[in-house]
Amino acid sequence: MSKSTTILISPNGTLHFVYSDAMAGLLAQGSATIRRVSSVEPTPDGKGWTADLFPVGPALGPFKLREEALKAEVDWLDTHPEWAKKVDR
Q1: What is the rounded distance in angstroms from the CA atom of residue 76 to the CA atom of residue 9?
Q2: What CA dihedral angle connects 20, 27, 59 and 72, to 10 degrees?
């Protein structure tokens, strides 16, 4: 099963999307800058995971599994396109 990727286009023509290896071909089409807009890290007690979307969004979690935190991170970015305006400066 393939997963779709949301690509946001800023007024200045900048493309924003959540990186995946499937998008490597797009990056090869011109100059690219890869910027982290979130991080998934273990909780301090090591019993869960959080997705911290600072500076573009909230902290999510905790989640029992890292995979759940990664999914929540991508879901939030896909449903809140305003994050691109915060990094398009």
Answers
A1: 18
A2: -30
Per DSSP, the three-state class of 41 is strand
Distance CA 80, CA 66 (A): 21
**pLDDT tens digits, 31-74:** 888 888 899 999 999 999 999 999 899 999 999 999 999 999 99
Token couple for 68: 């759940």
Task: Report d(CA 56, CA 41) in Å as an integer.
Answer: 17
Residue with tokens 């990727």: 5
The one-letter amino acid code at 2 reads: S
Q: Distance from CA of residue 39 to its chain's centroid? A: 8
Burial of 44 (0-12, 13-18, 19+ CB in 10 A): exposed
